[in-house]
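Hey, I was hoping to borrow your eyes for a little while. There's a protein on my desk that I can't quite get my head around. The fold is given in discrete form, as structure tokens running alongside the sequence. I'd be grateful if you could look everything over and explain what you see. Here's the protein in full, and shout if anything looks odd to you:
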Amino acid sequence: MVSTGQHSTSRPPWADESWESTILHLDMDAFFLSVELLDQPELRGIPAVVGGKSGRSVVTSASYEARKFGIRSAMPMAHALSLYPRLVVIEPSREKYTQASRQVMSVLHDVTPAVEQLSIDEAFIDVTGARRRLGTPAQIAALIKTRVREVTGLPSTVGVAANKSVAKILSDRSKPDGIGVVPAAQTRSYLAPLPVGVIWGIGPKLLQRLNNADIYTVGDLAERDPERMRRWLGAAGPHIVALARGDDPRRVEPRQDAKSVSVEHTFEYDVTNAQELEKNLLDLAYECARRVRQDGLEARGISVKVKDVDFSTRTKSLSLATPATSGAVFFNHARPLLDELLAARWHPVRLLGVRADKVAEPTEHVPTIQQESLFDLEVPDVETEPRQAWDSTDRILDDVAKKFPEAAIKPASLLRHERSQRMSDG
């Protein structure tokens, strides 16, 4: 049985059936698109997506009206447009999404410190300690939804259950703008008739294997012997059987750290020119570093990703000797990674990406160096100058970018390859 979170006012809060369902999963509805609709309300009710307007880009968020035509997130934009040629495509605005996400997470932290943020638009919340103050978990879920709407103007969906996996299933199945509640005692009976694919960790290939073995529902899976499933599927076997039985001991683990910050660019055409790839790598490294600084973080690793013309994806990574926030440092370490990827397998490149890995808040304060003017700046050498010099340079670039958003200013010493390319092209 699934409750809507409503209960009789004649009953005390602790008598509500959801009292032991203390794990909530909040998921924002079509988050990127919902944020954009705040500025473009005239697009409400029509098929629209967020993503690059190039046919080679992908959909990052789709309205529920667009989904009726089979359009989904991660779908190539060309495919989406073929499904509905009049589809409205909105270019993404990362800063707006980051600000809205911070507001949402602030609402959750006002309820309880037990918040585990999974991504920019979803989180688990353990409300065990908030019940006496705020009511039943179902009431807290309704409170959160109302508060998120008041603060951000955005819709959300909340799943309320006894553990993480069921709370996530509930939020997925209660969209849009809903609340799904399963009392703890009814967990297994709720799960039993659901399609087995709702269980975490069951992807298309495993789903096909399970179906071939006449396992179609969660209840079918729950009846299987865990040890026999281990012999068949390895360590994943007993794990998915436990989830099917409603057993998920994982706790909500509050964490502030993001694991990575990444930026990517899909080219309008497949790129074969190494200098053009290096120029784009430079831009991506500076943008990635800017986002790391904007979030008040620093990186301890760098990765470069290429997607070849055959859609295969390859990545090279390295750890940094010292944490970094500088675009120059990011680029200096990303460039040899790109060279290795291209040397290992030369294919026309469809997509290029840079990722800051193991990002976290700075562990110690780094003294600043005062600079009088950007144009009098002596650009430090990446390998020999102290980190503070690069940090100071990037802070100046950040200040310029805030005042002139369209500006693209980088130290001239890192742009020499651009000039040489233009000369060779001329």
